[in-house]
Amino acid sequence: MQTCTNCNTQSPDGASHCLNCGYDLSEWSATSQALKKFINNPRVRLVRISVAGDACPECYQVQGAYPKDAVPRLPIEGCSHEHGCRCFYEPVLDEIYP
Fold first, then answer.
1. How far apart are CA 14 and CA 55, in angstroms?
2. 15-35 core/surface letters (b: 16 or more CB in 10 A; e: else)
3. Strand, coil or helix: what is 13?
4. What pTM was computed for the model?
């Protein structure tokens, strides 16, 4: 499920726009917004994709850390889990404190 950051409505993984407000989920989903913040943060060196313990094979294949310009978009296309893609982004930092 994708969560719209405008209205907090959940939409299915395959939806391109929020079912409630119509916002473009490739721009305004919670995962898209998180990825943007990580990419724009100079302290973030890599972006890690983490998966649930019972993730589908498609999601397990993309698990790992990526350079900022090569991060796969979430939700993972082809995810076959009954609850949809539950992958999320995590930052890999160069430094923790200034």
1. 17
2. eeebeeeebebeebbbbbebb
3. coil
4. 0.85
